[in-house]
Amino acid sequence: MKKLGILLMIITLFVSCDKGNQKKTFKEANGRINNLLIVMKNSEWAGEIGDELRKIIAEPVVGLPQPEAQFEVTQVPLDNFSSMFKATRSILNVGITGEDSFTVASEVYASPQKIITITGKTKEGLINEIKKNSQKIITIFKSADLESVRRRILKQYWNPENIETFEKQGYNLTIPRNYKKVEDNGEFVWYRYHLNGGNSMELFAYSVPITSEDDENGNNIVAIRNAFGKKNIPGQIEDSYMITEEAYTPHIFEVEVDGKKAFEARGKWEVKNVYMAGPFLSYSVVDKKNNRIVVVEGLTFAPGINKRDYMFELEAILKTLKIE
What we know:
The protein is of the alpha+beta class. It folds into two domains: 2-153, Chitobiase, domain 2, CATH 3.30.379; 160-323, Mog1/PsbP, alpha/beta/alpha sandwich (Protein Transport Mog1p, Chain A, 3-Layer(aba) Sandwich), CATH 3.40.1000. Helix content is 31%, strand content 33%. It contains ten helices and 17 strands. Strands 9, 10, 11, 12, 13, 14, 15 and 16 form an eight-stranded antiparallel sheet that branches. Strand 9 (180-184) and strand 10 (188-194) form a beta hairpin. The protein is elongated, with a radius of gyration of 22 Å. The relative contact order is 0.12. It comes from Lutibacter agarilyticus.
């Protein structure tokens, strides 16, 4: 209990010092995206407190064909929290100490880095703090990982001014240079990143006019998507084309993209009359100024392979959307 309190004080001290010295340099953080280091007692991790955390961090990512948890987790007790572990990109400190608290710190031991510390006076108080801040935990670590992905993959990117559709339509995405152009005809953009074994990650961008309140309220996302697939994404045989999986409705959430009302859709795509399928993520952005819906989408074709991190990379790219 005392050790966790001391750790919290050290983190606070580091943050205070950093504010007073903006030139402070850090070692580069280690750890893959969607990986989380949890620092807490083994007994607490194995008990009710750990169970409550697992409900959050092991929750399956929405829209994937097979269940994949939000995070891969490594847990260490405070006594083993050595310099090697301190350089981890995402750290969650949890334990019973003198107060109920939830704090967030950045760039404490390395950069980029996020450290969340959750404490409680009692086991019940700690569990309550975890429950109360469950969404914050996911949002903070996910946002930090998205930014890390962008820094990594967008060091080199295609100039949007040289992409015909973006110039004509007045919107753009920042697309990494390792994605290769499949189509850019002034109406829609299609870029592809080749994975091993004939697998791939695909990016699409297009727009459609707003014709009804249902368009603005996200009620026609599947219909718009299927119409686009039928017209532009053909399959390998006659009368085959990409559609939204017919067996299940995608998960749709109202969000904000580029400061505008948007709808995030996560589900599965398939090719009509052909046995091909995989996960997709799309953002349908309501561009009232230009009376249209701007759609950006990413999907993965990688049978038999975990796809969480691929879809995470696509999300990072899709959220670079800018509309004039």
